[in-house]
Fold this sequence. Notes:
Mean pLDDT: 77
Largest sheet: 20 strands, antiparallel
Helix content: 25-40%
Number of domains: 2
Low-confidence stretches: 1-39, 325-336
Radius of gyration: 28 Å
Amino acid sequence: MNRQRSSIGFIVAGAIALLVIAIASFYWFFAKSPLNLIASTGQPGATIFVSKLSPVMVSLLTNPDRLQALEREEELSKLKTSLFAKSGIDYKQDVQPWLGDEITLAITTLDIDRDQENGQQPGYLLALATKQPEKSREFVELLFSKRALAGANLAVEQYKGVKLISDNSQPEQDSLAGAVVGKGFVLFANDPKVLRDAINNVQAPDLNLTSSPEYQKATKEIPKGSLAVAFLNLPIVAKWQGLELPEQLYNSQIISLALNSKGLLAETTFLTSSEITPPSAPLSKPVGALQYIPASAGLAISGSNLSNLGDSDLTKLWRQATATLYGSGEDVVSRLAKPLADVQKDWGINLPEDIFSWVQGEYAIALLPEKDQTTPHWIFVVEKSEDVEQGVAHLDAIASSNGLSINPLSIDQQKISAWTELTTATKKSDAKDRASFSIETKVRGLHTTLGNYEVFTSDLETMDEILTAKDNSIIDNPNFQDSIAAIPLPNQGYVYLDWTKSRNFLERQVPILKLVEVLGKPFFNNLRSLTVSSYGTDRRSLKGGVFFQLH
């Protein structure tokens, strides 16, 4: 188990640096940033060192110094300085002169020595493109000489024409191995065996990721101008997490990051060997149901056809993804969609069976968080049809069976049906110290017909906001329009999250989010909203994107 406890500070620091630098590209720019300053190499060149069996590879495809032109508060400079501070390395003097246009980090193997008795020790490989091989060799020599002065025992070997330098640090200290390979890359790893395997992958091309048919298919999905790319081998990622997935539909995933004048677009494609079908026909414009969602909404989900959602490939992807990351998707769903989960519990209904099954046209779902309330208000809008009328009658029957009354109301001459519950309230009389009772009517939900849509809400205040703010809907909101403009058409609809309005609610439901915010504070401080959508027409892949709109 000692090997599992051994730290790999330099490699981990490199991983964090790569992620933070990628995040830096999200927000260190102005509305009129000189985006032409950032050039992309297109595809990672370090894949020749990475095994086909690597679970994860992440690459920054531009020199980090180019991102520095977009800085606001010199955070990137501080990051690079602090990264090398403990090693006694000066970034500007020792690294900047030779660093090229790619930084790649990969987990190359789940266990370096394949010995389960001493614990699982993943292999980490950090590849830095070099534009001056001699200067980069001087850097590697300098780095290890400083480690030797700090007490590390160095070992030097020639392996297939490449000089490998490593130290024999104790388990509780950092261990590191490094080499300059040819004229292209400087490699660092947490074990010399990882470097030897990387060299073998170059000399036996059928072993490396470049020759993988799955990776070759995935790279065709990388848009031009991408700043960063990540590739995941999903079955091996699941194995890494110690999970046996009940359903393995998707084999791999590729993620790309690209800037535009409003923010960052992260596109992802999931690849499968099976033929898949979209959950509904693609939409060429936003659904009309959004006209009844107020601009004050913190979360809005829109699309068409919920009737087959449970068996769709999108749902299967969600199950596989959440199981891979969390072991189970149930807790994640219940936390993020707590208001809807509460409706199911209070009403004794099953959303897919009792509601989603009759929604075959357009729909929109929204949450309206309030600062002083832990549970936000909700809105559900669905396009009218014969099935919807039958569905409403079914909900009325469920309400009656739960002891609720169905009462007609009017707001500004708009006829509304309300599901209400009578409750009693008690208070002591001042005169005779006797309890007095009053009857109160509590609204459990409302619905009304507006145009060609049936609108459901959680309370009277929300219904009133919909009726009195017809010219202030989310579909007319400039922030929403800017966000969906970055998403290709046609698509399957949108999931829109206003970060400013939903932040407090999300932090209560997902406490770990506060830790994530601390690590990426500048990014979250500048985040205005994020929009998720699914699009693409390939029958053997599922493509989508997340657009991060920034201040």
